[in-house]
Amino acid sequence: MRYVIVGASAAGLAAAEAVCSVDPAAEITLLTDEPHPPYCRPLISYVLAGEAPETLYSLPLPSDGRIRIRTGERAVGLDPVEQTVRLASGESLAYDRLLLATGAASKPLGIPGEDAPNVFGFRTRADAEAIDREVAGGARRAAVLGGGLVGVKAAHALARRGLEVTLCIGSGAPLSQVVNPEAGRRVAEALETEGIRVRTGLRPAEIVREDGRATAVGFEGGEALPCDLVVRGKGVEPRGELLGTAGVDARQGIPVDEGLRTPLPNVWAAGDAIRAYDVAWGEPRLNAIWPAAVEQGAAAGRSMAGCDEAYPGSLARNSVKIGPWHLVSAGITRPPEGPFEVREAEDPKGGYRRVVLRDGRLVGFVAWGPDGSAPPSRAGIVIAAIRRGATLAELPFDPLFDRIGWGGFAFPLAPPPFPSIHGR
Ligand SMILES: Cc1cc2nc3c(=O)[nH]c(=O)nc-3n(C[C@H](O)[C@H](O)[C@H](O)COP(=O)(O)OP(=O)(O)OC[C@H]3O[C@@H](n4cnc5c(N)ncnc54)[C@H](O)[C@@H]3O)c2cc1C
């Protein structure tokens, strides 16, 4: 059976391994349009910061002779009738089973001037290397536009490199898509303590250029922020364009069923590119996180190879470390109007907790606290509880008041342990 996997990152690699574990006759071709062999994407901010060596990038690649990885190869067209993928080189690859593990891309700003050579996304190793060259070339002031996780990580990395960094946020606080404003306010304070200037309520209107290069960001209302480089940190958008070439609208994320099949026959999808069932929300959502991509890739791989199994669903979860502070969040942290109950607690040392319940069952969790919270990790137990729809009484501790360890989450803002592609 010929398997073609577009995207050789968390989801694609996990899928290839899963296929191999089920189908002894598999012939797998993994394509990536990046020039680098597969690498650990969340590390780009640590490497840029100088907190992790480049050697940590490398992922344990499958040594199985049935798997071939082709770097620098972009798939540009999909013919679901002929079952072929067309490459930018003009080559056509036939498949029996196709997986789209195409991930996501930095959201464009949608303002004039953003094509200047010193305006960067922050998604790839190439992005980090290009920013690194600007820093090495003397850039001193950075404007990071957008206060999502990627914007916060980029700001942190550049501040560590000694730049004067301004994090410009349209909403009232950083991480507004991840946590509630109260937690976001604490994140902003911690970032300021780390030397990052946090400005809220600022919407970029244009990139001001001189000789083609960005020299300032102009904001709605007329304010201008002089800078030597700009990072787009407004979040990501799923890369569903390949499915679009076959007539399926995937601009809001590739739609998949419970077996991670797309609407096209013999085409599956996994990872940041998809809109998969979310166990907390009970509906399809985008959850652009590494462990979800690995879980989905493995599930899609088994499904492609013939196993009849449903993907149980993903769950948003994030972990960030800023200076001595840790933020952990999972599930629904900012519930809409409806049958939700929110409980909050804070302690005199500045710690903050929030649990969100729906019909008495745990669906969301936020914890903010200083170093020294004792292991063993309990955050992982809270995640398991959300997945199971447990009540607070079923937990072996009180997530609002008891000590929570900070393990169980990938990639805090400190040199992380070496991650395996299984996300263990
Ligand atoms: C700075 C940063 C920090 C992060 N930190 C964390 C973290 O702390 N914790 C966490 O869980 N997650 C984190 N993430 C998110 C995590 O990296 C992603 O969730 C994960 O990489 C998704 O894996 P994926 O395989 O779905 O897609 P990707 O890793 O995006 O890989 C998709 C691959 O497919 C390639 N591709 C796309 N289209 C084509 C095409 N047409 N032809 C050929 N190749 C194609 C892309 O170039 C890419 O190489 C972070 C991301 C960034 C950028």
Instruction: Give me the number of helical elements.
Output: 8
CATH superfamily of the largest domain: FAD/NAD(P)-binding domain
- How are the strands of the biggest sheet laid out side by side? 3-2-1-7-19
Highest CATH level, the class of the largest domain: Alpha Beta
What hetero molecules are in the model? Answer: flavin-adenine dinucleotide
End-to-end gap: 29 Å
At CATH level 3, the topology of the largest domain is FAD/NAD(P)-binding domain
Q: Count the beta strands.
A: 26
Which bin fits the share of residues in helices? 10-25%
From the 3D coordinates, which CATH architecture of the largest domain would you assign?
3-Layer(bba) Sandwich
Whole-angstrom Rg: 22 Å
Number of domains: 3
* Main sheet overview: 5 strands, parallel
Chain-averaged pLDDT:
90
Which structural class do the helices and strands define? alpha/beta
Give the CA-based shape.
Answer: globular
Low-confidence stretches: 407-424
| Percentage of residues in strands | 25-35%
